[in-house]
Write a structure and sequence with these properties.
alpha+beta; Jelly Rolls; Rossmann fold; 6-stranded mixed beta sheet; 5-stranded antiparallel beta sheet; 28% strand; globular; CUB domain-containing protein
Length: 599
């Protein structure tokens, strides 16, 4: 017994001796032009816990003619520890740093360097053992000059000063600019901005997928909002298309809604409340070829490679991969690191990377320094590129044996929530259940609309129809709605208690119904108040029906001021939100008076 105890003590001592503190290091150095690299706070190489490496000088360089741009995220305990991070041009801390981090921030985008070589100085008391800082750094090689540092309280959506010739592009669809021939319809009775109706034919690859069919002969109608002088407060009404074969009942009483004035902060968007009854919504048939979003496909190479490659290949072949529709980032896990293909990956390159995967002998790592930092950085970049698209992370594995650390268990859910990622764990092992895979399931589980989905693989068709194109699953609608049953208010997506900045968007292909039952059996009107809403203009709408399924009101576009509708002579109202396959926004905040949410 004493002999065994001695062995255990020796092994424990050996582990302690071997455990070292890894300092701040950029995983790729030097960095090729246009490339991206990552770094994080010092951490124990065995436990993954934060540690104190002492004062560090960390150099980084890129190709001549290029400069370096830095984004910090998840900076915690920096103030408490009195530590600082300074970045200087050149090989020493001479002059003034072009970027300095001294406070705790959720995200900070620094200006670019002036040269292709920098020195990062991490200053900390080497004797400090508690309140050790946490932070992640994404460094990009770009062409451009320096700008102004920007601090935001949520994920980085766009920098204050865009760098000239920068490879970072802001998705122009967020400004509602469409390349199409427009026909202007001007209301001659008012000086409001021009509303236009544009008809465009959405491209469909008829051979790329066998999923839900799409009628390629139907033109999708979109509304283009032309630029408005932001110094003018205007009241506008969007002209909605009406099926010319449908006769409107002129005797039907439809409540009139007063369109409130909109603020003049930034471009003015039309508050598209309408008093006319348009053609009733039928929804959009989900089609992966028309889906818009950024999808990270994370490959656990310790899994059966044949099944791993089959599932990933079928996903890629179902999508239309380009900058307008779906972008993919193939992330390959290994025992000590992860490789990222980036968001510019083509379909051909994605298939090549998947085919090249080889079986990992032993377990892969999803520790923060091996995977988490890069994972977060990839989605920070996704938001900067395309703020208003759906973000999905698909983990493909057949086991529950990933290497993990304490940092990723706490940081992983923050990465998911802060970047509004919809995580999906796909189990390819027919002898196991995804619900038993607790390691990934715990480390990358977000809140409410970002809760992880654990899916046992059946087929590619079922994966898309049941999960990836199913807003009820992807946005966790049943659970979110259930949180408001018995209440008189509803926020979707739920942004968090007392959230000052909205970071979460709703999902594509939604058809969400909320029923609010009258408190006095219809004697008094039910009042529906949208205190704040942000929907894709001309595409995503809120419909309000009475107990006879008559459409009584409709809202769309973006509005900060209160929009109110009274529905009389009804036992309940049905509040329906419908969205299409494209841009997504921060949703709505609604209050009901004289009714209670029942379903």
């Amino acid at each position: 017994m004493k002999f065994l105890l001695s062995i255990l003590l020796f092994v424990s001592f050996a582990i302690l001796v071997q455990s070292i503190c890894d300092g701040v290091v950029f995983y790729t150095n030097p960095l090729k032009k246009g490339g991206t690299t990552y770094a994080q706070n010092p951490s124990d190489d065995t436990t993954g816990d934060n540690c104190n490496f002492g004062v560090q000088k960390v150099p980084l360089s890129t190709d001549a003619g290029y400069v370096l741009n830095f984004t910090f995220s998840g900076v915690f305990s920096l103030e408490e520890s009195k530590a600082t991070i300074q970045i200087y041009d050149g090989n020493d801390n001479i002059g003034t740093p072009f970027c300095e981090v001294t406070k705790n921030v959720v995200a900070l985008n620094c200006p670019s360097s002036l040269t292709n070589q920098i020195s990062l100085f991490y200053n900390i008391d080497p004797k400090l053992k508690t309140n050790l800082p946490s932070f992640s750094i994404v460094a990009k090689s770009i062409q451009g000059s320096s700008g102004v540092a920007t601090t935001v309280s949520g994920p980085v959506v766009v920098t204050t000063t865009l760098q000239p010739q920068s490879t970072v592009q802001v998705d122009t669809t967020t400004a509602m600019q469409l390349e199409a021939t427009t026909t202007a319809i001007v209301d001659t009775t008012t000086a409001s901005p021009v509303n236009s109706i544009t008809t465009t034919a959405s491209p469909v690859d008829a051979t790329a997928t066998t999923l839900s069919p799409v009628d390629t002969t139907t033109a999708a109608q979109t509304t283009t909002v032309l630029p408005v002088d932001t110094t003018t407060v205007a009241q506008t009404t969007t002209v909605l298309s009406i099926d010319t074969t449908t006769q409107l009942q002129t005797t039907t009483a439809v409540p009139t809604v007063t369109i409130p004035q909109q603020p003049t902060l930034g471009p003015i968007f039309p508050l598209t409340t309408t008093t006319g009854i348009p053609t009733l919504p039928t929804g959009i048939v989900p089609d992966p070829q028309l889906a818009q979003g950024d999808i990270a496909i994370i490959l656990d190479t310790s899994s059966n490679n044949a099944l791993l490659q089959k599932v990933a290949t079928e996903i890629i072949n179902s999508l239309q991969i380009n900058a307008a529709y779906t972008r993919v980032n193939i992330i390959t896990l290994s025992d000590k690191a992860a490789t990222f293909s980036g968001w510019s990956t083509t379909q051909a390159n994605a298939l090549t990377l998947i085919e090249a995967t080889t079986l990992q002998a032993g377990y892969v790592s999803i520790r923060n320094k091996d995977f988490g930092v890069g994972f977060n950085g990839a989605f920070v970049q996704s938001i900067a590129d395309r703020a208003n698209v759906l973000r999905t992370a698909i983990f493909i594995t057949d086991n529950n044996n990933q290497r993990i650390d304490q940092i990723i268990n706490s940081a992983g859910p923050q990465y998911i929530n802060n970047n509004d990622i919809h995580p999906v764990l796909v189990n390819t092992n027919p002898l196991a259940k995804a619900s038993t895979f607790k390691i990934i399931g715990r480390a990358f589980d977000g809140d409410n609309t970002n809760a992880i989905i654990q899916y046992d693989y059946v087929s590619n068709k079922d994966l898309f129809e049941s999960i990836l194109l199913n807003a009820n699953a992807l946005c966790n609608l049943e659970y979110v709605i259930s949180m408001s049953i018995g209440d008189t208010a509803f926020e979707f997506p739920y942004q968090g208690y007392l959230a000052s900045v909205k970071t979460k968007n709703y999902c594509n292909y939604m058809k969400m119904n909320i029923k609010c039952a009258s408190d006095d059996n219809g004697v008094s009107p039910i009042t529906v108040s949208l205190n704040n809403y942000s929907l894709e203009d001309g595409k995503d709408f809120v419909y309000i029906y009475d107990d006879q399924s008559v459409l009584r009101a409709m809202f769309g576009g973006m509005g900060q001021a209160e929009s109110t509708e009274q529905i009389s002579h009804t036992q309940f109202v049905l509040f329906q939100v419908m969205t299409d396959n494209q841009n997504i926004y921060t949703g709505l905040d609604v209050n009901f008076t004289n009714c209670t949410i029942v379903a």
